[in-house]
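Forum: Protein Structure Q&A
Topic: Joint prediction for protein chains with partners

I've read a bunch of threads here and the consensus seems to be that you should model interacting components together rather than docking separate models afterwards. I'd like to see that in practice. Below is the full input, 221 residues plus whatever partners are listed. Could one of the regulars post the assembled result?
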Amino acid sequence: GAGVSQTPSNKVTEKGKYVELRCDPISGHTALYWYRQSLGQGPEFLIYFQGTGAADDSGLPNDRFFAVRPEGSVSTLKIQRTERGDSAVYLCASSLGGGGAFFGQGTRLTVV
Amino acid sequence: QKEVEQNSGPLSVPEGAIASLNCTYSDRGSQSFFWYRQYSGKSPELIMSIYSNGDKEDGRFTAQLNKASQYVSLLIRDSQPSDSATYLCAVIPGNKLVFGAGTILRVKS
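Posted by a regular:
Agreed with the consensus. Here's the joint model:
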């Protein structure tokens, strides 16, 4: 597609439930990033993929968070046993690697 | 020490003035530097990239890089009310893109 696409745009879930957030990057972009952003803060790095592999997952806050990119294109961020503190906007970005990254519109996750 | 540091602001400038936004980074080996603009409720938008020491100009925007001082800046000439937003500095120290907390810019008409 023309830009980075994230689905859903909004997700409300109950505490303890499992959620999946999807990111479809710009065609041909090998690098894909996931960030989390809370109000008044900059994007917080979660994980970076180069191709199919996670090149850096040092930002994942704990083992409830996991991300995959099985074919080097679409990526899914998975959160198990959601907590109210997981509520944030989750942003995905893609790039050709080394260059500036382009963001999707984000998924607003609310855990109630 | 944070990897990328910015003054949170807000920075207030009158319409038509020059807005100067600053950023410092901790990893001396960083090679790529970016400025993003983020309007309230929207995603960050890439506005400038700079990779070598000196100035890079694009329209009303000028990015400045000083690797010896580990310092990046963004100048916005002839500031307009539509420039009011949060400006995020981003750096690649190694292989991941890391952001500062952003500086809020308010341009008063």
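Chain A has a mean pLDDT of 96.
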